[in-house]
Amino acid sequence: MQEYCIRSINCVVAATSVCRKVNKGNYLSSSIFRSTASFAQMNVNIGGVISVALFYCLILAVGIWVGWKQKRKFERMRVVSGANRSENIMLAGRDMGLFVGVLTMTATWVAGGYINGTCESAFTGGFLKCSTMAFGYSMSLLLGGMFFAKPMRMAHKGRGYVTMLDPFQEKYGSRVGGLLFLPALCGEIFWSAAILSALGSIFTVMLGLDNTLSIIISAAVAVTYTLFGGLYSVAYTDVIQLACVLFGLLFCIPFVWTHPAVDHEAMSQVDWLGTIPLSSVGSYVDIYLLIILGGIPWQVYFQRVLACRSPQQAQYLSYIAAFGCLILAVPPAILGSVARVTDWKNGTEYGQDITTPEEIKSILPLILQYLTPKWVSFIGLGAVSAAIMSSADSTVLSTSSMFVHNIYKTSSEHHLVHVMWVSIVVSAGLGTVMAITVNTIYGLTYLCADVVYVVLFPQLLLVIYAGDYTNTYGCITAFVTGFTLRVLSGEQLLNLPAVLKFPFYDEETLEQRFPFRTFLMLASIVLQLIVSAVAKNVFVQGYLSPKYDVFKCFDSNSSIIVAIDSKLNSGDAKDIDEETFFLNDSQPIPLRQSSK
User: Fold this and answer.
1) pLDDT < 70 regions, the chain
2) Helix or strand (DSSP H, E) at 588
3) How far apart are the C-alpha atoms of 502 and 520, rounded to whole Å?
4) CA 29, CA 35: separation in Å to the nearest integer?
5) Which of 286, 288, 318, 281 has the alpha carbon at shortest distance from 301?
6) Pfam families under this entry (predicted)?
7) Which residues touch 517 (CB under 8 Å, ≥6 apart)?
8) Distance between CA 198 and CA 15 in Å, rounded?
9) Is the pTM of this model over 0.85?
10) What is the pLDDT of residues 115-139, one digit of tens each?
């Protein structure tokens, strides 16, 4: 979720690189689509625009209706129990049922990148590549449910945290929590921008709409119903969007399967399993672990976990959604597999084989456009746009929730709600502007997905399961070091050279073959534990004065307590004969009895 994972983002790029044929043979690249002159030459597909408009109206109507209904329910709850309005917006009053929760969790994960990526992987690499996201996302949800959902939902005597950043701020303080907010914020915003950009490009290619106009309208629709009902509106519109995804893709399969250009006899000769070159095994494992573990520390995931009625329900939600992700990988995998045995050059209007990286990444839009009747392609387009919209609204809400609860903070509930509304609009605005103007948005999203894996996952793991062994010094050291090393490892999409070249580095392709992301993640865990232990020993044992404890991690009396305890352990307790040693006559500290 999201993300805010690298493989999903890689496949969303497909939409922006889409190429098509227009006017019997004039091949136009995606760069031409961006120009104003080309937009003027395109014919807007009125039928397709009407179908998408109807879909958007349906989503908007459902979101507004749910928001209005939830507002009336909240007013009754506030009178009876004094319910919290901001929490109602962010977490649906912690009253989300299992059915709706499973569907909104599944819809958030099965985004445009998931569908496009699964289809592309099935087209190019068979099961081994196709299973990366399907099994990776499912394993991510399973592990999240097994190890993270319950402790997060059980915190505060069963009331649960409000956002993913709460345990960090409680353990390390609000400043460090604000620091960890930055990679989470960037991951969500860049993910939102990437999927909005993909949606705009698909509309441009298949409908002839202006890219900028498509992005703005899509973002405006998502913001409108999110403002009306918060997580409740997002969740219920996700139910509609997930139904559209499943129905739309399944509906397209028979038309693609029976297209005259599909060579069914060739299916028996295709290597459906696929192969992973020995030199790529390291990077393949790295990507797999990135999707599995890096998919956990995202607010879009924990927002739904924390909205459940109980810790057990939060776990069940994750388990069932994992199964849902597997099921929804089947339709795009079938479409990609059929496209693999299609004679694109002689049997379709496309008129040439799909060989370039841009074409391969655009395989799903090409399937919908050239292997189905026009009216069927509109249904498929609705499925893809529904998948993208289901993630766009989630990222907007999750970003604003973290900002309002963990960064802005105010005691006025009424004021907090208004800030929440403003932050939703601002978050969507930032994603929209970046989708329209930033050419390196996908490179930034790659880097942020890596930072979430390398930096945030170790922090989340340790704060929940090793909180007694970590402190602010270890947290900040691991954060800065992990981020720095990841940047120094290079990123081709941002033209960042690899200063750190790990083993098996490919000088020709400039690729890291070593699973360096996983190595950096593990190094961050070890570094945080070591630095935390050293800092504790230095201050508690009295090697440094408490006045140098700038983060106030250790009590000023800790060194005295350790010294007394050391004397008791050594048997040198002749001068300590009281049961309690008093510090400043006001802080009694019970001493452990000597074995003597």
Assistant:
1) 1-43, 74, 76-83, 411, 439-445, 556-596
2) strand 587-590
3) 11
4) 11
5) 318
6) SSF
7) 286, 289, 290, 450, 453, 454, 486
8) 5
9) no
10) 888 888 889 877 887 788 889 999 9
